[in-house]
Amino acid sequence: MSPKQRRKLWDVLRPKLKKEFDALGITRCEVCGIGIFLGFAHRYKRRFIHTEEELRLVALLCAGCHEEIEFTGHLPMYERITSIIENREAGYNPSIHA
User: Domain residues of the chain, as ranges?
Assistant: First the structure.
């Protein structure tokens, strides 16, 4: 997938993911529970993502948590986002626990 294709696909997927997260009640940072300055964080830096499936694997994070996780390095970032996704799939919703 070229960078242009990836960007175009992300522009289509992002609003869909927003609706999916809203429908699940995930409206706050999945780490700290804050409800402002939110964005999606990927397991890999986006330039290393080459499939739609991987592009959809995201966590909803506030800017602070996103930055903190992103600058830990590739492997810790992958592990942390994967852990957040697994916790969500297991039923943990920080929007409820915040």
Answer: 3-97
Residue 67, number of CB atoms within 10 A of its CB:
11
Cα–Cα distance measured from residue 88 to residue 29, given in angstroms and rounded to the nearest whole number: 12
Q: How far apart are CA 50 and CA 68, in angstroms?
A: 24
**Beta partners for residue 59, in sequence order:** 41
Per-residue pLDDT tens listing for the chain (98 residues):
788 888 898 899 999 999 999 999 999 999 999 999 999 999 988 888 888 888 899 999 999 999 999 898 889 999 999 999 999 988 866 655 44
pTM for this structure?
Answer: 0.86
Neighbouring residues of 60: CB distance < 8 A, sequence distance ≥ 6: 21, 26, 27, 28, 29, 30, 38, 39, 40, 41
Cα(18)–Cα(3) distance, integer angstroms:
22
Q: 88 Cβ partners below 8 Å, 6+ apart?
A: 24, 26, 30, 59
